[in-house]
Amino acid sequence: MENFSLFEKEEKIECKPFIKWVGGKGQLLSQISKLYPIELGKTISKYAEIFIGGGAVLFDILSKYKLDEVYISDKNLELINTYKTIRDNVDILIKSLKEMEEKYVPMNNEDRKVYYYERRAEYNNLKINIEENNIRKAALFIFLNKTCFNGLYRVNKKGEYNVPMGAYKNPKICDEENLKNVSLALKNVKIIYADYRESKDFIDNKTFVYIDPPYRPLNPTSSFTSYTENDFSDKEQIELAEYIDVLNKKGAKIVISNSDPKNTNENDNFFDDLYKNYNINRVKANRMLNSKANSRGEINELLITNYK
Fold it and tell me: Nearest-CA neighbor of 144 among 169, 125, 118, 179?
């Protein structure tokens, strides 16, 4: 009997990330996509991404392949709330974003500042006092992402979002067409607020897994961004590698991305040793080596696979 996928469509839905995200994979996407397993969409009928972030790889895969099951997760509750809101309540979300865009864009800089910091305070109030899913909180999450400095998501130790206003002349706060397409693409996706280990029961030998954890800092000044209140140190990188070994034994096809310590110390074999049983690809990316913009340049990043 022919197997009809949940994602069977007359035409593919083109969609792209709805937020900017530090370390987003837009510029590496062409190189990551070359590593997709050839069986994807055939015998590999499931996809999992366990540090979802901006979702560049997810949306590329949802735009190209018909899959039976898709699982995404993250430990950033606000990010997961926003994904769920787009999937389940996109029309209300769009209405709220349009209202903010129509108010904010025509304002002068001083009025924008007042409006931005009022919205940031409203967001932090919802973030701290409302644990469950909330459409207004998702709208504010997107508004702040589109109008803040450099699209950063950073919180202090209290969990308060603390990024200042950016200097965009005409920010696109509500990309209605893309949000509707993303909503359709996410229709049957399992969206989970959880530690990455919770994915263990979902992942099997029919699953392609993309793993993009918080990168290991190349130097002390590059660790200025905290996505959640929890840090991701070398200890966490080692624990993640141990979990990847578990998934490898299950027969899943896996791609992992991370920074290359050899950019700043050619004798630093941290990932070469940690993933010595895997295939380590070094690929070029334009990143900032530190917080000074003039230090931006082409550096290596790692794409690690458990298959050729």
Answer: 118
